[in-house]
Amino acid sequence: GAAGGAIAVAGATPSGGGTAAANTKVITNPAALLHTFGTRVQKGLEQLEDKLEDIFDSDSDSDNRSMATEAEGFANAMSHLQRDNHRTALNYLISLNDEGGKNADFKTQIVVHVMKVADGAMDSEKVTVATDAYDYALSVQSQDKDADSDRLRLAKRGAIKGHKLLAIECEEMRDYSGAIEHRVTVYKLLDEMGKFMAAVTQLMRAAYLHGERDDYAKAIVVLNDAVRRLGKGIRNIEMMPADRLQLLIQCLEMRAICQAKCAKLSEALGQYDELLPLLAKTQGTGCARYNAALIHKAALLFTMKNHKVAMITVGKYLKAREIAESDIESEEAIVEPKDHLLALDTTAACYLKLGNVDKAIDTFEKKLEFVKKEMPDSKELRGDTMHKLGCLLAYRQQHNDALPYLNEALNTRKNVYGSTDKSVIESSFAVAAASQTVGDTGRALKEYDELIAKMNNVNDHPVNTVTVHNSAGKLLFEDGKIDRAIQSFRQALKFSEAAEASTQLMADIKLNLANGLSAKGEAQKALKLYDDLLKTKILKRTTTFFLTLYNKSLLLINLGEGDRAREVLTKVTETRSSNADVVRGNCFMMLGNLSVSDGDIVDGLAQYDEAMDNIDGDDLDSRTVIRRQIAIAHLQSGKYDLAMTVLEEALEDLGEDDSNKSSSLHRAEIWTIEARLYKAKDDLQTSKNFAKLAVDAYKEELGPTHPITLRNNANLQLLLLAEAEELPKAEAKSIIDAAKYDMEDTLDAFVSLDDLWQYRLDVASLKTNLGLIAVWQGKPKKARKLVRQIGEIEIPEDHPILHQVEILERRVAELEGKKSKRK
């Protein structure tokens, strides 16, 4: 088509013109053509004599000259045709018609020669030129009531062929507007020729193309016209011819889909109700088209929230498929893969709405199996199915089962769409959340970091920004990355305010932020947030209200305000509100801790018993924590056997499942207490063994640089130093040197956490012990330097570490005195 619009260059080599010239028998000698044409016209005039007026209104010499000019024009046009310059030939004939005479014979010759150009252009595959030529021939003949019917029919056939070819070409280039224009032209020409069925088919194709343009409203208008045309003259559908009925069924199928796309759900449902009986009658209920319509009706019913009827409807298809698959000879009920996938999606969605999550999971597992088997190259479908399946498993709290699907979905989507696609962001959040739940902190943090970076660069992403920042903040808080946690909570609060989020959501974020500030030591800012939450009327006596009271009490305890903390905790334990149950057990436990710290072991143990009575019997985590506190109370009162019994019971309840991170961390905490217990009994070897078990567990679950791991590793080195103190100096040297190097590495690790204020007490403790080692090694300058560094650290007045610092300062002074005397 594009080639047909080119202007031939003078002297260009013809391409494919010889065959066309031979077929049309064009006279190649202009003089001969002039003589033949002039003789024929003159002879006709002589025969007419006086019966007609001279149409040229001139004498015979003038007539001959005019005819000669026209003949030369036709000859020139044909010469362009011979050189395969079809567009030039057509343009020449059009100008000749515009300037030439208006008699019927002349018009006939114009049509004849234009048709030759059209046929030649079509043979040369210059579809655009051919179509223009056929259209022009039709327009010339339309002005003549006595036009030759055969010639008119040929012109229409040529135009129909040309417009069809151009429509196909436009469709291939996705120029649907151009394709529609050509299809409508074909429809009109076929209708003029009385080819009713073919005309309606073109109308239906135009409707389909409107659908490709997402203009379903126009598609419905066109289909309405097609349905009217098909029903014209038919009083009873029973009397409709079979071929016409098939077109009607196809129109109804298309119209139902378009109505659904336009959200005309009731009309679409009615259309399916009209369509299904026709399909059942003409093709049977086992045919693929019937089942496809059944599936689409079910999906429509689901959209209309008629979930039970939708399930019954799609169930009819699934039953038909099951029967067909059991019959080797029958395959008709097996619909197209995309329709079967729609059936599975509809089924799963119905199960979810009806509350049967397990059945929904089973359905998605079948879908994944189907996609892998029947559509192995469709990575998009595979990734989408695995993502949904993983999310459902996570919803069922089967996070370990969900993660493999979510991970594979994420990797598949990255490969298909790139790392910044919306679906990848969606999968990244799912992986981060599931990893966070199963305790894979490293993976979760990695995904959150990448997710937040992508969200900043992608507009209209599919995940909730507030949820992402709040979830990331909680994970960072749990991992000891307090500064980053606070930053995430502040971002979550900022976005929630911009989105005018609910008071409850904003309160949850503020509570998380307050807890972060409390952990960082910004007590006044934290207390202000706690008090603001407690003054919010809508939150009074809600779960958030009591959580705020509990967390405020923890901060007051850290600030050394035990009496105020006890007052807050008692307020929670004495309330009758069931919303306080979420923290009531913890409040009793904290009251027990306060009593134990005050030396009132009996009251402390009584509070721990109350704590046990106020937690869920299935809450293994809380039970284990309370038992640890009971063991510590017995340890402080010197009842080592009782303490050991409680710890052993706790270990027995935890079991030996190493795959559960929470249980592994609880075991590590218990081993830490057992290490303290055996140290108190002066059994350093056993104490050291339990301390090593704890450190190894923390390294495995939290990583070697986690603050808790570092803290316990430092405690292990203290046990080694205590063991070395009982050895001769020569034997102790290697142990002390090893402990010193390990402590220095631990100190460097705390510094690298880039939050010296948060870990200032850990740093002070390590530097104090390193100072004592320097004294033992006889290095007063190094020891004095460490003392000065410790003095720059802000340590609470009542903290036990101050006693160790005083011992260090005294020993440094003694060492310096000895060194001075020697000089």
Report on the architecture of this protein.
This protein is mostly helical and 823 residues long. Helices cover 78% and strands 0% of the residues. It has 37 helices and no strands. Helix 30 packs antiparallel against helix 31.
Tell me, rounded to a whole number, the average pLDDT.
87
Rg over CA atoms? 45 Å
- Strand fraction: under 5%
What is the count of helical runs? Answer: 37
The rounded distance between the terminal residues' Cα atoms is 108 Å
Main beta-sheet strand count, sense and barrel state:
none
The tally of strands reads 0
Q: What is the helical fraction, as a range of percent?
A: over 70%
Topology diagram in text:
Blueprint lengths: L16 H8 L5 H19 L11 H23 L3 H14 L4 H20 L3 H16 L6 H24 L3 H17 L3 H17 L3 H16 L10 H20 L3 H19 L4 H16 L3 H20 L10 H17 L3 H18 L4 H17 L3 H19 L4 H17 L2 H15 L9 H14 L3 H17 L4 H18 L2 H13 L7 H16 L3 H13 L6 H17 L3 H13 L6 H17 L3 H15 L6 H20 L3 H19 L4 H19 L3 H24 L7 H17 L3 H12 L9 H22 L1
Helix pairs in contact: 1-5, 2-3, 3-4, 3-5, 4-5, 4-6, 5-6, 5-7, 6-7, 7-8, 8-9, 9-10, 9-11, 10-11, 11-12, 12-13, 13-14, 13-15, 14-15, 15-16, 16-17, 17-18, 17-19, 18-19, 19-20, 20-21, 21-22, 22-23, 23-24, 23-25, 24-25, 25-26, 25-27, 26-27, 27-28, 27-29, 28-29, 29-30, 29-31, 30-31, ...
